[in-house]
Design a protein that fits this description.
The chain has about 475 residues and is of the alpha/beta class. The chain contains 10 helices and 26 strands. The chain folds into 2 domains: about 375 residues, Rossmann fold (3-Layer(aba) Sandwich); about 80 residues, ANL, C-terminal domain (GMP Synthetase, Chain A, domain 3, 2-Layer Sandwich). It is globular.
Length: about 475
C-alpha cells in the first residue's frame, strides 16, 4: 500500500471537495482493495479525471490496486483522446458518470464516487512490474509521449515534499491544480503521506463559491502556477482576511519578478511563508525549492535541490561545473526521477532507463550559496501559464492544417510563430488557441519571406528574434 495509507486513522478525512463530499482514509484503503477485486491485476486504464473526491479515489485506488492509470483531463479534446486511445488501446476506461452517454458501447463494470468503470474488450498488454501510472508530457497538444512513473517515485516525492514543506496531518491544502497535472498530483501524494485533509475543487478562482469553500474549510496552504497568482493579484487577494492560510507555494514555470516579490513581501508581512519551487513531470513534480528565508533576497531563484536529492551543472562536453555563476545544463539526481518515456503501447514494458538521473534541458547558473537560477531552456518546449507546450508539436499542428512553412520559438512569456504566408496569420492563432486552450495574447504571429534552414534542411531557430 503506497503512501502509508493503511497507517492513518480509518475515520480521518483524506479529502473534501467543493460539493461537500468526503473521503476517509479507511474508505480509500477499502476502495483500493475493491478495485483489485474487480479489475485484473496490472491492467492499463484511461482515467479521465475532474477535481473531486472521485478523482482522488480512483487515481490513488487504481495505483494502489496494482493497476496502471493514464491520468487525463475529463474534457480532453475528442481528437486528442482518440489518438491516445488508438495508440495505447486500454482494456478499461474510468470516466465521470456524466460522460458515459457517449461511451454506451462499453460494458459497465462498476460505478463508485461519481465515476463509471468501463470495459473496452481490448486485450491486456504486458507492462513493467514497477510501472505505477502514466502522465501526458503535453496535455495541450496531445502528444502520444507519456511519462512513465514507478512506485518508488511516488514514495520519494511524497517524502521529499512533505519534508521541506514541514507537512503534518493538521494541514488542509487547497487543491485547484488538476489531478492530471504533475504538480496537482504531487499535492495529493505528499499530503496523503502525512495523513492531512485535501480540499479539492474545480471551481473558478473568480467564483465567489471558491473563496467561500477556501474560508469555510480553513485552507492552510495554496499551490499555484504563475497564472494562478496573477488571478489572485487581480482578485485583491492582499486585502483578504485569511488567518488560516499559512503557506503559498508556486511552481509551473518562471514567475514575473515583481509579482514574485509582491507575494513574498505579503507573506513576510503577514506571518505566512512564500516558497517557490521547480520541477518537471519527469522528476515526479518538485525537484528544487527556494527556502522562505531567501524568498525576497533571492527572488527568481529556484533554490536548492529537494531533500534526498542533488542538483548539478554540466558543460557542453558533459563535464561537471564546480564554479559559481557559470552557466551549464542543470542535471538532477534523486529517487523521484521517473523511468523514461512511452511513445507506443509496447513501451509500457520498458524498464528504468534513467536510473535516478536526468538532464533537465534547462540552462542554469549556481550562486555562492548553492542556489540555482534558470537562465534558458535547451529543450524545445515552453511553459505558458504553467502549461508545458511543445514547440515542435505546435509546428506539426500548424503544418497538418495549413499548406505553409512555419517555425515556433519563444519564451515562457509568449510563443512567436513565424509564417511565410500572411493570409493564414489569424487562422493559425485561432488554431493554437483552440488546441492549447491558452489565451490569444500569448501567441505572436510574424510573417517572413522564408524560414532559414541549414544545408541538411533543419530550421535555424537561432536566426529568429523573440
Amino acid at each position: 500500500m503506497i503512501l502509508r495509507l493503511e497507517k492513518q486513522l480509518k475515520e480521518a478525512i483524506a479529502a473534501i471537495d467543493s460539493t461537500g463530499k468526503t473521503l476517509s482514509y479507511g474508505e480509500l484503503v477499502a476502495f483500493s482493495k475493491e478495485i483489485a477485486s474487480i479489475v485484473p491485476h496490472r491492467s492499463l486504464l484511461f482515467l479521465l479525471t475532474e477535481n473531486n473526491i472521485g478523482g482522488i479515489a480512483w487515481g490513488v485506488g487504481c495505483i494502489n490496486s496494482g493497476n496502471v492509470p493514464l491520468i487525463l483531463n475529463a474534457y480532453i479534446e475528442d481528437e486528442l483522446y482518440k489518438n491516445l486511445f488508438e495508440i495505447y488501446q486500454p482494456p478499461y476506461l474510468c470516466v465521470p458518470a456524466t460522460l458515459t452517454i457517449s461511451l454506451a458501447s462499453y460494458e459497465v463494470v462498476a460505478e463508485r464516487y461519481g465515476y463509471t468503470l468501463l470495459k473496452t474488450k481490448l486485450k491486456a498488454c504486458p507492462m513493467y512490474l514497477e510501472l505505477s501510472h502514466l502522465l501526458p508530457t503535453s496535455g495541450s497538444t496531445g502528444s502520444p509521449k507519456l511519462v512513465r512513473h514507478k512506485y518508488d517515485n511516488i514514495e520519494a516525492a511524497a517524502l521529499n515534499i512533505s519534508t521541506f514543506f514541514h507537512l503534518t496531518k493538521e494541514d488542509r491544502p487547497l487543491l485547484v491544480l488538476p489531478l492530471y497535472y504533475t504538480m496537482g498530483l504531487s499535492v495529493v501524494f505528499s499530503h496523503l503521506y502525512v495523513g492531512a485533509t485535501i480540499l479539492i475543487t474545480n471551481q473558478s478562482m473568480t467564483d465567489r463559491a471558491f473563496w467561500s469553500f477556501m474560508k469555510e474549510r480553513k485552507a492552510t496552504s495554496f499551490t499555484g502556477v504563475p497564472y494562478s497568482f496573477e488571478i489572485l493579484n487581480m482578485m485583491r487577494f492582499f486585502r483578504m482576511d485569511l488567518p488560516d492560510l499559512k503557506l503559498l507555494t508556486q511552481g509551473g514555470g518562471k514567475m514575473p519578478r515583481q509579482l514574485n516579490l509582491k507575494f513574498a513581501e505579503y507573506c513576510r508581512d503577514n506571518g505566512k511563508q512564500w516558497i517557490a519551487t521547480y520541477g518537471q513531470s519527469e522528476g515526479t513534480a518538485r525537484m528544487a525549492y527556494l527556502p522562505a528565508k531567501w524568498a525576497i533576497e533571492k527572488a527568481g531563484s529556484i533554490g536548492l535541490a529537494v531533500p534526498n536529492a542533488e542538483l548539478s551543472l554540466i558543460d557542453g562536453e558533459g563535464n561537471v561545473i564546480e564554479e559559481a555563476n557559470v552557466e551549464g545544463e542543470m542535471c538532477y539526481r534523486g529517487k523521484n526521477v521517473t523511468l523514461g518515456y512511452a511513445r507506443k503501447r509496447e513501451d509500457l514494458l520498458l524498464g528504468d532507463e534513467r536510473h535516478g538521473f536526468m538532464r533537465t534541458g534547462d540552462l542554469a547558473r549556481r550562486d555562492e550559496d548553492g542556489c540555482y537560477y534558470i537562465v534558458g531552456r535547451i529543450g524545445r518546449f515552453l511553459k505558458l501559464f504553467g502549461m508545458r507546450v511543445g514547440l515542435d508539436e505546435c509546428e506539426q499542428i500548424i503544418k497538418g492544417k495549413f499548406p505553409i512553412e512555419c517555425a515556433c520559438v519563444g519564451t515562457d512569456e509568449k510563443m512567436v510563430i513565424y509564417l511565410t504566408n500572411g493570409q493564414y496569420a489569424q487562422s493559425v492563432k485561432e488554431l493554437l488557441v483552440e488546441k492549447t486552450k491558452l489565451v490569444a495574447s500569448v501567441f505572436d504571429v510574424r510573417i517572413v519571406d522564408e524560414i532559414p534552414r541549414n544545408e541538411a534542411g533543419k530550421i535555424l531557430y537561432s536566426k529568429f528574434n523573440i
